[in-house]
């Protein structure tokens, strides 16, 4: 081996070569970053391709949409948390905004729980289910988010509304208007763990028996908002409102 | 009051809806009743599978101390299913093909299909081969009352015959009939394990 | 089993076995019934005794005794039946074993026919010859090289190695270094040529 040039110039040379190596190394890491970018792009386009290929299914088939969402969350992609406002959904489906997308999830939950609660779901329960459906931590959905989303749903005429019943916020997904009497029934039922009988309404609301009976029977038969218990020890005929009952899952 | 799930003495986990008093009343609203019936059917079939129960009768809702007490009654909330309600549920089960009236031409008792005949066929063949009874002529009694209990013990003859019919189609079983009665012989068949 | 739904034919034997087994089932079921009656009569006798009706208790016990004797009778019948069934089934197994033995015997005969002593002897001889030939070659090869020749071989090997190393070195010296282009950008023009030489050791290190 032969080493040439020992002197002042050597320092410069050293500096020079260091510089060259630094350049080289930054070029190398740049290429790695580029590679990673291209991989991400590839993945993103694969996801986009999948989503657009199955756009109709995702939009129209609730169980397919659910599976797609599960897939996204299992690989750590929140379909609502894309690169720009509105997320993947907005980008892939041309849907306008994040709130609207959250709305899709809210509708999903309201529809799937409707058979159990008659179309009334408590805000806290909805929040819990939305969070569960999204399955991603650190991206908290707040009551306000839901409130806003439901507002954006209103033009669709699906009848989604946040209503205040006895100081509790509830989300209603039935088209039928709940009249004042029914609201009063719901408030009272909540105090009794979901149970309500005619006498309660007569005593506490000063209703006539006919009025109480009519409201309850309508809720039972016409609207499917409550269930009948014909084995009630006290009155023999009690009404139960699933949306006012506390369920453990 | 929270409606919670409960574990019965036999180790069965009752769903929370079983703690809801109106669950034990037939619902006048047809939509609501359809939901309730679905819940009941699921509950009955999972319980039957848990306890290996094969039949359900309307009287099971009338009498106490039978195999179905744990689900047809809820003593904590003092509710029980009425016979007429159960009768309608049995009817719905037969329509959904998860039960058949047995004996036929009455509507008081059913045989439950918590396993399909195909699933029973598989279990039957598995049992015959694991107990070294392939290629041997067996009576139905040999299967329903074996010296060592199996999952086929007490299987109703109706279900057993259906399972055997499935195996016969696959060439894995052969029914032998004589004046005195019937017997069956199982074979390893193709793709034998 | 052969092809698809090829199930064996039902023979008269099969029917006979099934018949016996069905008889056995009937006896078993009968025994079950008697056992239940026995238990009930016992309970009845106890009840009567408790109620002070001794004569009735005695009647119940008599009935019970009679049923018990029936049970014993059926026991022996059942035993006979089961013995018969298992004897038949065992005979069937024996028959199939016999068939198996017979077939095996045939196969063995066939094999023996092909393996007569002469061919085997010839084959063994041939194998022996081949083996000897192989040993001979190995021995010859091992003995042909003297110690001197062996040393010469080693020397030649070293020489080749040295040459290879030399060649590699020569190539390295001539390698152009990668970063030569960069210094062009830097301000000091004259050093370009010098750094060209100075770069080599850095790379080798």
TrEMBL record, chain A:
Gene Ontology biological process terms, A to Z: protein transport to vacuole involved in ubiquitin-dependent protein catabolic process via the multivesicular body sorting pathway
Family per record: Belongs to the SNF8 family.
Source organism (scientific name): Amanita thiersii Skay4041
Pfam families named among the record's database cross-references: EAP30 (PF04157)
A Gene Ontology cellular-component term: ESCRT II complex
Protein name as annotated: Vacuolar-sorting protein SNF8
UniProtKB/TrEMBL annotation, chain B:
GO cellular component term, pick one: ESCRT II complex
Pfam families reported for this sequence: ESCRT-II
Gene3D superfamilies listed in its UniProt record: Winged helix' DNA-binding domain. Chain C. Domain 1 (1.10.10.570), Winged helix-like DNA-binding domain superfamily/Winged helix DNA-binding domain (1.10.10.10)
Annotated GO MF terms: protein homodimerization activity; structural molecule activity
Listed InterPro entries: ESCRT-II_cplx_Vps25-sub, ESCRT-II_cplx_Vps25-sub_N, WH-like_DNA-bd_sf, WH_DNA-bd_sf
Gene Ontology BP term (one): protein transport to vacuole involved in ubiquitin-dependent protein catabolic process via the multivesicular body sorting pathway
Alphabetically ordered keywords of this record: Protein transport, Transport
Keyword Transport: yes
Family: Belongs to the VPS25 family.
Protein name: ESCRT-II complex subunit VPS25
From TrEMBL, chain C:
Region of interest (Disordered), ranges: 176-205
The keyword Transport is annotated on this UniProt entry: yes
Compartmental location: Endosome membrane
Gene Ontology CC terms, in alphabetical order: ESCRT III complex; multivesicular body
Superkingdom of origin organism: Eukaryota
Coiled coil: 123-170
InterPro entries named among the record's database cross-references: Snf7_fam (IPR005024)
GO biological process: late endosome to vacuole transport via multivesicular body sorting pathway; protein transport; vesicle budding from membrane
Pfam families per UniProt: Snf7
Subcellular location, principal: membrane
Biased composition (Basic and acidic residues): 186-197
Residues spanning the signal sequence: none
Keywords, in A-Z order: Coiled coil, Endosome, Membrane, Protein transport, Transport
Family label: Belongs to the SNF7 family.
Protein name: Charged multivesicular body protein 6
Species of the source: Amanita thiersii Skay4041
Lineage of source species: Eukaryota, Fungi, Dikarya, Basidiomycota, Agaricomycotina
């Amino acid at each position: 081996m032969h080493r040439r040039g020992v002197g002042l110039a050597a320092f410069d040379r050293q500096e020079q070569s260091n510089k060259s190596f630094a350049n080289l190394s930054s070029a190398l890491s740049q290429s790695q970053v580029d590679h990673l970018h291209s991989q991400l792009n590839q993945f993103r386009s694969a996801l986009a391709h999948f989503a657009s290929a199955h756009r109709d299914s995702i939009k129209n088939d609730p169980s397919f949409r659910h599976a797609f969402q599960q897939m996204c969350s299992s690989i750590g992609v929140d379909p609502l948390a894309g690169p720009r406002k509105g997320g993947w959904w907005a980008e892939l489906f041309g849907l306008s905004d994040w709130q609207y997308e959250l709305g899709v999830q809210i509708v999903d939950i309201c529809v799937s729980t409707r058979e159990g609660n008659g179309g009334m779901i408590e805000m806290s329960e909805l929040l819990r289910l939305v969070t569960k459906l999204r399955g991603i931590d650190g991206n908290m959905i707040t009551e306000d988010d839901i409130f806003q989303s439901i507002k954006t749903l209103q033009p669709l005429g699906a009848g989604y509304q946040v209503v205040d019943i006895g100081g509790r916020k509830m989300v209603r997904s039935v088209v039928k208007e709940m009249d004042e009497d029914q609201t009063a029934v719901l408030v009272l039922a909540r105090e009794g763990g979901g149970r309500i009988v005619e006498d309660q309404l007569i005593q506490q609301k000063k209703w006539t028996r006919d009025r109480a009976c009519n409201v309850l029977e309508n809720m039972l038969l016409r609207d499917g908002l409550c269930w009948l218990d014909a084995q009630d020890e006290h009155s023999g005929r009690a009404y139960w409102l699933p949306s006012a009952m506390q369920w453990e899952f | 009051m929270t409606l919670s799930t409960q574990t019965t003495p036999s180790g069965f986990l009752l769903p929370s809806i079983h703690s809801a008093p109106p669950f034990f009343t037939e619902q006048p609203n047809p939509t609501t009743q359809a939901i309730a019936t679905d819940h009941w059917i699921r509950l009955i079939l999972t319980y039957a599978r848990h306890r290996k129960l094969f039949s359900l009768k309307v009287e099971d809702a009338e009498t106490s101390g039978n195999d179905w007490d744990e689900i047809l009654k809820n003593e904590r909330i003092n509710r029980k299913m009425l016979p007429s309600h159960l009768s309608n549920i049995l009817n719905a089960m037969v329509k959904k093909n998860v039960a058949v009236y047995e004996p036929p031409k009455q509507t008081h008792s059913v045989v439950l299909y918590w396993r399909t005949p195909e699933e029973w066929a598989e279990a039957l063949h598995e049992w015959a081969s694991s107990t070294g009874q392939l290629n041997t002529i067996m009576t139905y009694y040999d299967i329903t009352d074996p010296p060592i209990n199996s999952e086929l013990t007490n299987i109703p003859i109706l279900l057993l015959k259906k399972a055997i019919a499935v195996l016969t189609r696959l060439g894995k079983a052969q029914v032998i009939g004589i004046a005195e009665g019937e017997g069956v012989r199982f074979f390893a068949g193709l793709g034998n394990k | 089993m052969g092809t698809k739904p090829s199930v064996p034919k039902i023979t008269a034997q099969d029917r006979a076995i099934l018949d016996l087994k069905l008889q056995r089932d009937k006896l078993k079921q009968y025994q079950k019934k008697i056992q239940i009656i026995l238990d009930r009569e016992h309970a009845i006798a106890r009840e009567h005794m408790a109620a002070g009706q001794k004569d009735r208790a005695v009647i119940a016990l008599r009935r019970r005794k009679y049923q018990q004797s029936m049970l014993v009778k059926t026991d022996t019948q059942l035993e006979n039946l089961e013995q018969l069934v298992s004897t038949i089934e065992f005979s069937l197994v024996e028959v199939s074993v016999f068939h198996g033995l017979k077939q095996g015997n045939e196969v063995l005969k066939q094999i023996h026919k092909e393996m007569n002593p002469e061919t085997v002897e010839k084959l063994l001889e041939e194998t022996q010859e081949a083996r000897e030939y192989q040993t001979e070659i190995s021995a010859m090869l091992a003995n042909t090289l003297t110690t001197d020749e062996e040393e010469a071989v080693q020397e030649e090997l070293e020489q080749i190695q040295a040459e290879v190393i030399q060649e590699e070195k020569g190539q390295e010296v001539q390698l152009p270094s990668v970063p030569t282009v960069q210094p062009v950008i830097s301000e000091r023009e004259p050093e370009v040529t010098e750094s060209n030489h100075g770069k080599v050791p850095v790379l080798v290190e």
